[in-house]
Amino acid sequence: MSLPVITGDKEEVYEDPLDLMDEIDELKKEKDASILAHFYVDGEIQDIADFTGDSLKLARDATKVKTSTIVFSGVHFMGESAKIMNPEKRVLIPDMLAGCSLAESCPADQLGSFQEQLRAEGRSFETVAYINTSAAVKSLCDWIVTSGNAQEIIGRVPDDKEILFVPDQHLGRYLMEVTGRKMILWPGSCMVHEVFSIQDLIRAKRNNPGSKVIAHPECPQNILEITDFIGGTEKMRQHVMSVKEPTTFLVATESAMIHAFEKSAPQHNFVPVPGIMVDTGETCACNRCPHMARNTLQKVRDCLRDGTPEIVWQDYFEKARAVLDKSLL
Ligand code: 13P
Ligand code: SF4
């Protein structure tokens, strides 16, 4: 029997995940394709991917892929970065509408105007962009950072320059704290990390004596202040692997990350930190990124089979390429 299921804005007919996985395996060979999957997409997609990882590792992996086609299961800016760094490859993404609240918070025209204003004031600065930005924004920047390399890249900005950091104000504030560099912060934020409930986190700590909090630096300061380990997704994964004693970790990041934690460090118990309460008094399920959730096995199969949606090369990618290459490779 086939059951209709709702994913994002589209009704999909239920198909057996194991059949879909077999079909994807066949199509990968037929179409000469590799699948890259971010830690925030569904576990079943991570399990069939050729490469999984954080934004930094996947951007680097994309340059090592031997096949002529890359299917990037993540969000739009990730597929765009893979295309920019590999212009000769065909880059497909399962859903063109998989965006990012951070990338959307910093439109290129607004950034350009703000940079103009700073220059007119005689300020001498370099612009450092989190990788969660559009290619048009990247083309206006001096450096690109990910959560995995931000401290090192900030160290490369000359001391006599101010830093304009876009678009994540929380990551920027955290980086100011750990690097000691003062920054002008763009007021963007991630819709997932912004909404963790501090009350629920404190309650979870009380209910789980001896537990440890791990959090992504995209979280606001009040969450990071009671966190035992702060790091991007790969750094958190390395951390839980390094702890040998079975431990309960309270996880303040996107909930699909728990799949990667459980695979890498099965000795531990991972408890997702819930989002804030909604009007009905219930806790929202906002620790699941709605953009990442647009990736489904069916859409991976469809894009492999149909060769679309594809990230098509744009003129301004050339400028973004120089910045990405010097920052990430
Ligand atoms: P990292 O995997 O680089 O830590 O990024 C987290 C994120 O929010 C991706 O959108
Ligand atoms: Fe963007 Fe946040 Fe979703 Fe990552 S988790 S893609 S930063 S909205």
From TrEMBL:
<keyword id="KW-0662">Pyridine nucleotide biosynthesis</keyword>
<keyword id="KW-0411">Iron-sulfur</keyword>
<comment type="pathway">
    <text>Cofactor biosynthesis; NAD(+) biosynthesis; quinolinate from iminoaspartate: step 1/1.</text>
</comment>
<dbReference type="GO" id="GO:0008987">
    <property type="term" value="F:quinolinate synthetase A activity"/>
</dbReference>
<dbReference type="InterPro" id="IPR036094">
    <property type="entry name" value="NadA_sf"/>
</dbReference>
<keyword id="KW-0408">Iron</keyword>
<dbReference type="GO" id="GO:0034628">
    <property type="term" value="P:'de novo' NAD+ biosynthetic process from L-aspartate"/>
</dbReference>
<protein>
    <recommendedName>
        <fullName>Quinolinate synthase</fullName>
        <ecNumber>2.5.1.72</ecNumber>
    </recommendedName>
</protein>
<keyword id="KW-0004">4Fe-4S</keyword>
<dbReference type="Pfam" id="PF02445">
    <property type="entry name" value="NadA"/>
</dbReference>
<dbReference type="GO" id="GO:0046872">
    <property type="term" value="F:metal ion binding"/>
</dbReference>
<dbReference type="InterPro" id="IPR003473">
    <property type="entry name" value="NadA"/>
</dbReference>
<dbReference type="GO" id="GO:0005829">
    <property type="term" value="C:cytosol"/>
</dbReference>
<keyword id="KW-0479">Metal-binding</keyword>
<keyword id="KW-0808">Transferase</keyword>
<dbReference type="GO" id="GO:0051539">
    <property type="term" value="F:4 iron, 4 sulfur cluster binding"/>
</dbReference>
